[in-house]
Fold this protein.
Amino acid sequence: MMGRIKGISGPTVSVDMKGLKLYDRVYVGHSMLTGEVVRLDQDVAVIQVYENTKGLGIGEPVKSVNMPLTVRLGPGLLHGMFDGLQRPLEILREKMGSFISSGTEIYALDYLKKWSFSPLKKKGEPVTRGEIVGYVEEGPFKHFIFSNFEGRISRIMGGELSLNDTIAELESGKEIFACNEWPVRMPRPYRRRLSTWEPLLTGQRVIDLLFPLARGGTAIFPGGFGTGKTILEQAIAKFANTDIVVYVGCGERGNEMAEMIGEFESLKDPWTGKYLMERTVLVVNTSNMPVAAREASIYTAVTMAEYYRDMGYHVLLLADSLSRWAEALREISSSLEEMPGEEGYPTYLASRLAGFFERAGVVETLSGRIGSLTMILSVSPPGGDFTEPVTQACLRTAGAFFMLDTSLAHRRHFPAINWFQSYSLYEKEISRHFIEHVSPQWETLKERCRELLKREESLREVAEIVGSEGLQDADRLLMKVAEMIRMEFLCQNAYTEDAFSPPEKTIAKMGEMVEYYESAMAKLKQGISLEETLKG
Amino acid sequence: MRLSEYIYSTISSIRGPLLFVEKVFNARVGEVVRIRFPEGKEMEGEVLKIDGDTVLIQAYGETRGLDTGNSSVVFTDSVKRAPLSPDVIGRVFSGSYAPIDGAPMFVPEKWVPVTGYPINPASRARPEEFIETGFSCIDGLNTLVKGQKLPIFSSAGLPSKEVAAVILKNSRLGSETGGFVVVFVAVGLTYYDYSFYTRVLEEMRTGFVAFANMADEPVVERLLAPRFGLTVAEYLAFEKGMDVLVVITDMTNYCDALREVSTAREELPGRRGYPGYMYSDLASLYERAGRIKGMTGSVTMLPVVTMPEDDITHPIPDLTGYITEGQLVLSRDLHQKGIFPPMDVLPSLSRLMQSGIGKGHTREDHRKTANLLYKYYAKGRDLRRLEAIVGRDGMAEADRFMLDFADSFEKEFVSQGVVRRNIQETLDTGLNLLRRFSLT
């Protein structure tokens, strides 16, 4: 099917072409730019182009491939770095040099590489759709291969195979390969959603104790620039107790990505002792790369994350930042001349976001395993103003909210999570787990910590009027201890060994501080002066 | 490829810098056109949008004198390109790349599209080579590294150009490689400011290239000048192996030009009338800074942004801060106290500092010293609010002590005039201060 370009406006192109389906993938122009059909209007189709449209001319050909935009799924994704369209950046660099120009199609996976395949099914055994037929070793992980069809196995291979080779054949003649394609905008199927809640440990004391996160949950952390979003996101990517991490740099800085890759290559996972890169998939669409591909990048990433979830792994998806994605959506919407909603964002912003958030969860997969997909997403509200549409839309669906506070960041209090405004809806379910597995004191100590911080806040107002000298000894002690909690417990330097704190250590530390406060209070009650007490 | 140039005299409407041309049957987005005035004068423009046979063109110059009957447009079938050659060093150009220093145009070695291509994130080298600017508040607390983009956030009336000038004069790279060159881009600068900068550039010992769009010159040129500057910078860095420092002043004028063109196109305005795509547009400039694996050169960027109404949440500084790797914030309060550079280190930040300091880069105790200085200065600043309420006498001894520290920090560490301090002197100044207050 062929058509010709009729109009070009920013990242969208209109074409006179019949027979296209919505969200079909097309190649645009002589340089074969990748695009997706976003609107059909009688004989005219509007296409969102994922690459720079500069230089594109009227009358240039457009070809349809009769298929939606897809992601390739198979062994070799881990340790990989892709752009928003899943083009492998390392290979792109070898082929095109240090700069990215438009119109190159490179497969995400290496089809020639040999993988050692171990079958788990025998000839004659029945398989259902989504059932596991065998696995290959991908780094430290067993990468399971699914059957895409239902039937009885007539032939199954073993040993060294490439992605082009048939892994198994069914009696119906259908072939199973180690690699397949999946449309990016379609969630991968599972048997059912579960509501079992286990904590996702981040190694960040303030999150694990005060605002714990559940596996299969979603969290957002909005913050103005300089509040440490990226550092926090990267710290979580490094230390979270999860099998696989998919990290999306969505419209963010190139240098930061370079720094992160360097670090991930050399650092080890504190839970397993393996190199971080071996469990990581990176999707990178920096702010100067095409804006439409930025819109696609989070879907590319979540599809890959779901794929590993289907193998029964715990997957963590981190995106930095969702605001850039929303801005890309806005840009495309405005070039389509759609009616704008709040601040120019399209009216479907909230529903699109909700649809994306709902791809997280704990599920029983088609093969009967339990896998989870957790999302932690940063938001960059303009001017640090949380009333803007993207933050508000996210708040409606996210399960946890870590509010990054500019004034804390200016005081170099990192992670700059505000302990009064933030919340986690998973707190109750997760606390039960901590009480059982870590410390029976968990809930009590957490409440003590909250209370001390709360009382400090009200005392501070008094101190601002009367001066700290004017306070009673008991209050001054409380201020002292609260300061200790803030500086030594809530603060965590991402560049030292303290960057990772296991839950046992976290709760022990809180225990010590509360104990210190109580014993000092007892001394005060005996009439010993504050100065003496603090010395002892 | 077209075999000949197409000329159309079917201009249907003219709105500010924008022209609509009808019945065009072969055009490309981003294509350069030459607009011919009735009297024969020519000016360049670019195709922005095509809708069937109607083409929207943005003129790179003053459209006064154009009409819809006798004026014509020549389509050239090529995107906007910049001429490049090593001879570009030492020259001064206008915002549309015409020499304004009296010498003739150089012979170009090659022509390159001005929009550039994005650097593949996989080929970026980690920025970790320290640049010594000579200012303690930058070197010590907000260290600049090669390949970084670090804007100066200033306000009307603050000495941003003096600060930029001292940085230009005093900057030394940690290691000497293929040479050091400054690309200076003036965007909508007044003659007064411009003449100040030309004096500075002339006094410098290193080479420079300057692009100057003055306040009374065409607004659309402001969108082009930084792209010329950066194309030249990329060429000198990644083909000639030089370390390039790009100074663009003032980005606020650039953004206002962007808004002007956007409103002329009747686009939906975003915050404060700036277009919704301003983030992506600014990123296409700022992200051109960097280092590349296996290449010696680097592009470091130091844009100057004037915050309207001293408001750091205004869209221009806000979006800039989201793209750049930190910011240096000038403070009116410190300026009034007579401190130079009047840099407020608390809201200032260098995100790439971590990889550029410490053993092998600066000094082993750098991180520790910087953290202590920050911590106690922040504490002192916090207490100043209390001081305003209860008065100094009403405060505890320990609190008064922190106030003294904050004052001394500003007077001794931040304030240094135009004197250059190397990194050893900077760290020693900080250490001595901490020792004197027994805070180490």
Chain B touches chain A through 82 residues (CB under 8 Å).
